[in-house]
Every structure is written in structure tokens, then in C-alpha cells.
Amino acid sequence: MDNVRVRFAPSPTGDLHIGGVRTALFNYLYSKNKNGKFILRIEDTDRARSTKESVEVILNAMKWLGLTWDEGPGNEATEYAPYYQMERKEKNIYIKYVDDLLNKGLAYPCYCTPEEVDAMRKEAQKNKLPPKYDGRCRHLTLEQRKQKESEGKTAVIRFKTPQEGVTRLDDLIRGIVEFDNSLLDDFVIMKANGVPTYNFACVIDDYLMKMTHILRGDDHISNTPKQIQIYNALGWEMPRFAHLSMILGSDGARLSKRHGHTSVLDYRKEGYLQEALINYLALLGWSTQDSQQIFTTEELIDKFSLERCGVSPSTFDPAKLLWLNGEKIRSKTPEEIYSLFVDWLRYTNNEGLISGWNNNLLKQAIALEHDKIKLLKEIPELVDFFFAKDVDYKEEAVVKTLLNEKSKLIAEMVLIESAKRLLLKEDFSADALEQYARDLAKEKEIKTGQVFHPLRVAISGRTQGPSLFHMMELMGKEEVIRRINIAVNKFFRK
RNA sequence: GCUGCCAUCGUCUAGCGGUUUAGGACAUCGCCCUCUCAAGGCGGAGAUCACGGGUUCAAAUCCCGUUGGCAGCGCCA
Q1: SS3 for A239?
Q2: What is the pLDDT of residues A77-126, one digit of tens each?
Q3: Rounded CA gap, A300 and A50, in Å?
Q4: What is A445-456 written as a DSSP string?
Q5: Are A423 and A481 in contact (CB under 8 A)?
Q6: Mean pLDDT across the stretch A471-487?
Q7: CA A47/CA A86 separation, integer angstroms
Q8: Where is A224: in which H helix or E strand?
Q9: Where are the beta strands (DSSP E) in A78-172?
Q10: A215 pairs with which residues across the strands?
Q11: Fewest C-beta in 10 Å: which of A61, A202, A376, A409?
Q12: Which residues are A108's β-sheet partners?
């Protein structure tokens, strides 16, 4: 099939979910792999729940993730606006086909109230039958319709669903699935307010937009027979369908707020890289034969295929995402991480966190902590001591290392000696400093650790941190000695 | 309730009838490296392939059933 055209069609009624992003991603990957087009269509026909904010969230998330779409209603040169169904409704795109079906006798107005329909369904369910609208308005005469309308009743338009035979779906992922037509009811295609319903607008747009493949969540599979019926009624050729497996939360239920972050943008706020999220999501429901885990987005595009999409649902695992994020960060240069970090500060309005920090020092500090960063948001806490005027001595570190009963005297000696001797040191490189520390240990007949640890705590205030001597080198002689003296004054001067 | 989908280590998965003592990854545990924390390296534990029947010389792989999970059943999308 040439000229593959696929779409992501979210409804703007809330945040963009992980599950939605996965669907968008697979559509995107498929289109790019086939050298086709990826389209974004906002399904905003639910006037009560669609919000502008939600549209913004979707658009921002898509852009952040790099899931750019290739087309829109306008002819903008660089960035397309997506399609909006309500805009298309205003252009009378859908009504035309509603009329068409009405004229062909394949649809009819229904005057039943929602309450009446609801009662029918409940009744059916009570009798262990599939809940259906019973089709009572199907055979209303023109006379009766006029009567209803004169009573001021409003109508919805229902589609006349064939009640016999089966509707067969040849799904690209799941194979052949058959649905008994007797289970379908005459569903609404246009609401009383003149807005088309999802199952209708979706078909009209997919056809008009020349979609070749519909990749969507498994939860849509039972909508498919209805949509197939519309295609048939209109005499249209169908796209191929492919239903993706669901993503569940750790408790086996569909992913929701209870499982932590559900909006993609929350992950951005946490300091995840878009490529980590992309890579992780690609692994849910898709795999390569060799079970490769780490991919660049280009590789994903290159290797993606529907044939290798799985059928069973998967559980979202935050731990693996976190690992992947660390992997992605580690694969970057300190310079790149710095720039990602600055973007993150701007995005989260946290620029204040590094006010007064020397950029160059920050970059080098990032280089020293390179392997440890799992989330961008961790960077400040990892390196802030480099920029502190007063060393913030973490109590635990001090007690454990400096004031420990057994090594207190040694720690004091090491610091006092170091303050003196380092002052005279000309070569302040990491190598030279390490040599100095080892020599001191040897001379005083103590263990190297007994020199290293007090120095680390005195200088940084903590027991953990970057390589001690690189840290000292980066701080410079003056600052190191200043800090050692702070520690001496604070803990050893009576 | 009805209908549909699904079922391999805790999790993501490889596997499409014999090459499997079921492979990889995350998590977990241990060891090594080491100035701490990481990262990295090595290794361990972890799956009677949901269960029960078939088909076959041979089944995780094919068929049927059971059970369980999930989804859908709107003038929501």
C-alpha cells in the first residue's frame, strides 16, 4: 500500500494520557516508517467537556515529544494547525452525509428521550439481553413524525443497523474478529444539537482525509463494527484497522490517576527526556526479535512494524522508564545535559534555583555527576554544594565522619594539616591532590579512607558526591582551603 | 448481564511444532572495580509457559473447553 496516511484523534476532554501518547507514537512511527503522512485531528464534538486548555496540553505534549503532524486544514508553511471536528461541522461537512443516509432510508429521526432509551436498555439487561435501543422510531410514518415535531420534540438521527448476519473485521494485529449484527442497535449518528457523534464523524473524516490505516487502542474494537456499517452504507472503501493492546496500571486496571503521573507533561516536569518516554512507550506492545531495549527515535522509525505489535495488554512500569531516562542522560555530553537542564528550568519556572550560579562551573559539575543523573530535576541537589557560600553540613555526615568517637582526632589532624599543606601546593590537579592525600596517609600511618572521608565532608558537607579530587580541582585551591577552615572552625575549635 | 479481546519470570518481552536444561531487559540479590554515591563488569535467584482436554512421533507454540483479567455496551470519545 503506498501513500500511507494515519492519524491520531484525541478528544480534548482532559490531559493527554500515557495511553494516548502510545497510540499517537505508534501512528507516528508507522507513518514515518512507510514514508507516509501523520495527521492530528482533534475530536471536540463533545461540547460540554471539550476545553481549550486540554487542546493546548495535547498540542504542547505532541510538540515536546516530537510527534509532529504533517498536515492541517490551512496551508501554513511551517507549522500546521490540526484539524478540529467542530470547525468541520461548521462547514457542514457531516450534515451532508447524514442527509444522504436519510434520503437512502438508511437512517431515521428518533424522538425518544434519553430517559426512555435508558429505560429500554435497563429493561433489556434485566432480561439478560444485550442492552439496546429497540428501534421503535424506525418505522414512524411521515405523519407521526410531523405529529412529534408539532409537539415540539427534538430528534436525533439514528443509523439503521442491519440486524442479521455478522460484521467481519480483518484486523492487522488481531486477525479476523466477527461481531454478530443482532447485537448492534440503531446508534445515534447526529445528536439533537446537530453535532455528529463520534462513530459517525470519525468515519466521515477518516474517509475524507483518505486514511489508509486506523491504529487505535483496543478499547475501540467494539466500535469498529458500527463504523464498518457506516462505510458500507455510504459505499466507501474501508481503511485497514489495527487495534493496539492496552496499557494498564500496576493493579491491572486501566492506567489512571491512581497510578501516579498520568499526564505526559507531568513527566516533563519531573525531568524525563522526551526520547526516554518515546523509547519506553515503544517497548509496551511492540518488540524486536532480539528484544533490543534501547533505541533512538530514528531507529524506532526504521524498525517499527505492525507485524511485531503484540496482542496482550501490558503494565506500565515506572522503574523501567526511570532506568531508561538515566540511560538516555548518560548517553549525552555534559554540554547537552546542561542545555536540557536549562530548558527544564525554564519550563518549570525554576530558573531561580540556579540564580547566581556560574554556568561554567555548573557545566563542569554536571560532568562530574554525569553518571548519577536519572532525572533532570535531580541536578540541583546533586551539585548545589559547589555554589554554596556556607557549606551546609548534613548532620549525619558530620557525626559519622568528623565527630565519630574513634576517628575524631584523626579527622581533626587531617583537616588542620591539609589546610596548611594545600596552601603550599602548586599543582592542584586531581592527580596531584590524590597523590598528596595518599602521601599524608602514609606519613601519618593511617588508612587512605581516613584522609579522604574527612576531606570530602569538610568540603562538601556530605558523605556522597563526585570523585573527591576532581571535585577539589574544580573548586580550586582557595575555595577548598576556605571550606576546610570552615569545618575546622565549626567542629574543632573550642 | 451481554459481547469482544487477552493469558510465557514481580514487570516489559523473545519464542510463530523438534535447534529450549524456555533467551533478553527492568527490578531484586551477591561479587568485582573503587576515595563515597553512582556507572560499569560478572554471577545468582526468579516461569511446572493460567488450568484441563485433545491433534501430533513431537506443543509454550495448533484446536476445544474452563478459569481469570481487561475492554465495550451513551444524544462520551
Answers
A1: coil
A2: 667 899 999 999 999 999 999 999 999 999 999 999 999 999 999 988 88
A3: 33
A4: T--HHHHHHHHH
A5: yes
A6: 96
A7: 9
A8: helix A224-234
A9: 83-84, 107-110, 156-159, 166-171
A10: A242
A11: A409
A12: A158
Statement: the CB of A431 is under 7 Å from strand B = no
Asked if A456 CB < 7 A from strand B, the reply is yes
**pLDDT tens track for A327-384:** 999 999 999 999 999 999 999 999 999 999 999 999 999 999 999 999 999 999 999 9
According to DSSP, the β-strands at A314-315 and A175-180 are unpaired
Alpha carbon A130 to chain centroid, angstroms: 37
Question: Strand B: which bases are under 7 Å from protein Cβ?
Answer: 1-8, 10-15, 23-27, 35-40, 69-77
Find out whether A159 and A223 touch, Cβ atoms under 8 Å.
Answer: no
Which residues, at least 6 apart from A151, have a Cβ–Cβ distance to it below 8 Å? none
Is the overall model pTM greater than 0.90, yes or no?
yes
- Which three cell numbers, joined as nine digits, stand for A60? 504542547
**Closest Cα partner for A82 from A54, A58, A105?**
A58
Q: Are residues A215 and A248 in contact, defined by beta-carbon separation less than 8 angstroms? A: no
Is the separation of the CB atoms in A39 and A83 below 8 Å?
Answer: yes
Residues 299-358 of A with CB under 7 A from strand B: 308, 310-315, 317, 319-320, 323, 326-327, 330
CA–C1' span, A168 to B60, in Å? 29
Task: Please report the ipTM that was assigned to this predicted complex.
Answer: 0.96
Strands A156-159, A188-190: pairing is antiparallel
Distance A371 CA to B44 C1' (A): 26
A63 CB-to-strand B distance under 7 Å: no
Task: Determine the 3-state secondary structure of A6 from DSSP.
Answer: strand
Q: Going along A186-288, which residue ranges are E strands?
A: 188-190, 213-217, 240-244, 247-248
Catalytic site positions of A: 257
Cα-Cα-Cα-Cα dihedral of A22, A25, A26, A27, to 10°? 120
Q: Are A353 and A382 in contact (CB under 8 A)?
A: no
